[in-house]
Structure formats: C-alpha cells, structure tokens
Amino acid sequence: MVDAIWDWDIADADVARALTIHHAPSTSLLLMASYRAPVDLDQRGCALPDKCATLIRDAVVTLRPTGPLGMLVVLLKPDAAARIVDARLGEFANARISLWDLFSEDGAAACSELLATARSSAERVGTVVTFLLRRLRPPMDTLAGRAATYLRRDPALRMQELAGELGITARHLGRVFQSALGMSPKHFARLARIERIVQLRQRGLSWADIACDCGMADQPHLIREFEALVGVRPTDFFVRSGFWVPDAPVSGHFVVQPKNNAVRKMHSSAVP
After folding, report:
1. 205 and 133, same structural domain?
2. Is the pLDDT at 243 greater than 60, yes or no?
3. Which of 17, 61, 93, 102 is most deeply buried (CB count within 10 A of its CB)?
4. What is the distance between the alpha carbons of residues 8 and 266, in angstroms, rounded to a whole number?
5. Are 68 and 192 found together in one domain?
6. Are 122 and 20 part of one and the same domain?
7. Across-strand partners of 268?
C-alpha cells in the first residue's frame, strides 16, 4: 500500500524558513498534509493546497516553509490509488486536489486535528496509517499492477520483453495499463527511471554510472531525459542539496536545499 511516509518535522521557524524542498516526478501518488505553519507549495508557478494529493508527472513540486515546518508526505504505491480513493493513478497527474475534497470532510478534519495534536513523529505516522487502512479495499491481482511492479524494479525493461513476461502482446499491455493506471506503460517507465536516478545520485553514484544503470546510452541522454520530465538539468536539481534522514529504509524522491550548512533532521517510516 505505502512505499514510505515522511515526516518533515522542523519546529524551529528560522531553520525551517531557510529550507527549500524540491520533489521530483515519480510513480507514487503523493498525499501531503501540513500540521504546523502554512507552507507554500507550487508547481510551475501554480499553487497547491498544503493538504493535497498529486502525482508529479513532470516538473518539480517545490515547498517553502513560512514558519515551523510540519508536513506528512505519504508515498502510495501505484495500485493503491484505486484501493484507497477509488480513482486511477493517472487522474492525479499534476493535479492540485485538496484532501478535503478527496476524502470526506469529517474524516479529513479528524485526521488533521490528530496530526496537529500528536506529540511525536511515531504518533503522527500511526494516525495516517490508521486513516488509510480504514479506507483500504482488498487487493486485486491485475496485469497492470504486475507490469508496474516490473517497471519500478527495472525501468529500462523493453515493452516487448515486459509483455512476454506477462504472457500478453505489447499492444494488449498498453491497453490494460492505460485503462487501469491512466497512463501508458512507457511514460510510467520514464517516471520510474527518474525515481531511480534520484535514488542513485543520493547514494553517491556518478552521472556516468547512473546512466549505465538506467539503461541510457550515455550521460547526455540522461541529462536530456531528466530535463524533459523534471524541467531542470540534474546538476541544477541537486545543487547545494543535503539532508540527514536517520535510519531511512528508502531513499526519498526529493532534495532539500538549505541556505546554510546546518544539519537538517527529518523523520521517516516505511510501511509494507
């Protein structure tokens, strides 16, 4: 159901205002909810609610705190959208959907109040997990779901090979994938590749090694693909980035750009 839950928890207003957080396009449905001071969220100059759902299909989402930062970010697996919110993943592409519109107003209000009054990151994460589990419908073993799992594991996988693994034709794969997730498998693979590029760079790999790992012809190919989907060159996306995530089970698809060299501590939790 969930790839990860991030609790961006910085109570010091001056420290928080010194940060800019950029989230790259990904295959995950993002549920974002602030629980302290308002935050400025935007994508290509368009404002997003500070409690919103979106699939970042192209162009980064940028977050700028206005005071003490408290933000829960849930990364839902691609097939979880239909199981929790009864909508295809593609319907959230670059969307600016308020959580108040997505869930019942009473449910969203109760969850928001619990987040605001929680005394620890663990309590906030538990609140969100409980909220989501109450809305979770049983899983369905679908071709599209299995295809998405293959592509997240290996974004360089050719569509013909993927169709062969599933025992169907490439044309049928395209139809069922589009119907279930609201986008083509090729575009989904491009998003998965951006995720992998960000994760590998966070691990310290060189651009040349990342290009090779992601099945790209060379480094210029990587730069072109990254810029086409993210909107900036990879070196610009990662400039002056740095954050510390203690015991993080997964890499995030975001970078934090501080205005000074102070260490930033952010909590994380992954839920299977």
Report:
1. no
2. no
3. 61
4. 5
5. no
6. yes
7. 6
- Cβ atoms 6, 271 nearer than 8 A: no
Residues 236 and 119 in one domain: yes
Statement to judge: residues 192 and 262 lie in one domain: no
- Domain ranges, residue 157: 143-228
191-224 pLDDT tens trace: 999 999 998 998 889 999 999 999 898 999 999 9
174-197 burial, b at 16+ Cβ within 10 Å, e below that, comes to bebbbebbbbbbebbbbbbbbbbb
pLDDT of residue 258: 63
Number of domains in the chain: 2
What does R_g of the chain's alpha carbons equal in angstroms?
18
Amino acid at 267: H
Q: Distance between CA 173 and CA 63 in Å, rounded?
A: 36
Cβ count near 23 (within 10 Å): 24
State yes or no: pLDDT of 38 exceeds 90. yes
The H or E element containing residue 226 is helix 219-230
Percentage above 90 pLDDT, the chain: 53
**Per-residue pLDDT band at 253 (split at 50, 70, 90):** low
The pTM is what? Answer: 0.85
Residue type, 124: R
